[in-house]
Structure formats: structure tokens, C-alpha cells
User: Which sequence fits this backbone?
């Protein structure tokens, strides 16, 4: 049951990302800046998280332990900002579906590398034939949806 809830949670997060991506593209069209749209996105996200923290919705934090985190652990925000900006720029050219599938393929490829070598403190999961096949099928889906998009223009 815990696995099903985790899958449902991850699937819901994916759905929210798709909605957020479409919203960011619309915001970019209005303010004419992908970086501006990403800035608004992260400002609202920061405000939301800060409010949840102040209201006690987020559990106790050990901010005094931050110095024990490795240097690379602080790049998540910069990587997220880069993701949002690149995604916002790609959607008008590829469409939401093709962009989302290309993002998912990139996530899978990097995840296989991180899992294989246990990078960044992640427990190692050996790359297997089914994982490679699934990633290959995802790449095939990206190619097929892009070909379909070209044929429907």
C-alpha cells in the first residue's frame, strides 16, 4: 500500500508539474521573459513555503546543521530555476507533451547514471535490462510524439 501511495504521489507531482509548466509559459507570454516568469514562479514558491514554515505546517527544521551538508547539496534551487526556465522556453517550440516526455527521458537517463554509481548519497541500484528497455521506450516515445507533431502542422 505504501508503494501505491508513493506512486500516486509521484504521479500527482508530475501532473502538477505539467500544469505549472503551462502556467509558466502563459506568464512568459504576458511578461515577455522566461527568466522573469521563472523569478515570479520561485518568488511565489518561496512565499508559500515560508508561510507553511511560519504556520508550523512544515516540521521542525535543523537549520543549525546546514554546515554539515556537502557543497553540492545547495545547487538544487539553481538547478530548479534552470529547469523551469529551459522548460518554459522549450514548450512553445515542442509543445507541452513533447517537452514533458523529453524532460522525463532526461530524468531517466540521469537517474540511471546516479543509481548505477550511487552518486550524491543515493543508494546504488544496478542498471538492469528492464531499466534500460524502459528508458529506451521513453526515448522512442519522445521521437514518435515529435514525428507526430511535425506531421500534424
Assistant:
Amino acid at each position: 500500500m505504501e508503494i501505491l501511495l508513493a506512486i500516486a504521489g509521484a504521479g500527482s507531482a508530475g501532473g502538477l508539474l505539467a500544469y505549472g509548466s503551462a502556467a509558466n509559459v502563459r506568464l512568459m507570454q504576458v511578461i515577455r521573459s522566461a527568466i522573469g516568469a521563472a523569478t515570479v514562479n520561485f518568488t511565489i514558491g518561496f512565499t508559500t513555503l515560508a508561510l507553511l514554515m511560519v504556520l508550523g505546517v512544515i516540521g521542525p527544521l535543523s537549520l543549525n546543521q546546514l554546515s554539515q551538508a556537502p557543497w553540492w547539496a545547495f545547487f538544487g534551487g539553481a538547478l530548479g530555476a534552470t529547469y523551469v526556465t529551459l522548460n518554459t522556453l522549450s514548450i512553445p517550440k515542442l509543445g507541452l507533451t513533447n517537452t514533458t516526455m523529453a524532460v522525463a527521458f532526461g530524468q531517466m537517463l540521469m537517474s540511471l547514471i546516479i543509481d548505477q554509481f550511487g552518486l550524491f548519497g543515493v543508494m546504488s541500484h544496478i542498471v538492469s535490462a528492464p531499466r534500460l528497455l524502459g528508458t529506451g521506450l521513453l526515448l522512442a516515445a519522445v521521437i514518435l510524439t515529435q514525428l507526430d507533431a511535425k506531421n500534424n502542422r
User: Anything to note?
Assistant: The CA atoms of residues 10 and 16 lie 10 Å apart. The first helix runs from residue 2 to 31.
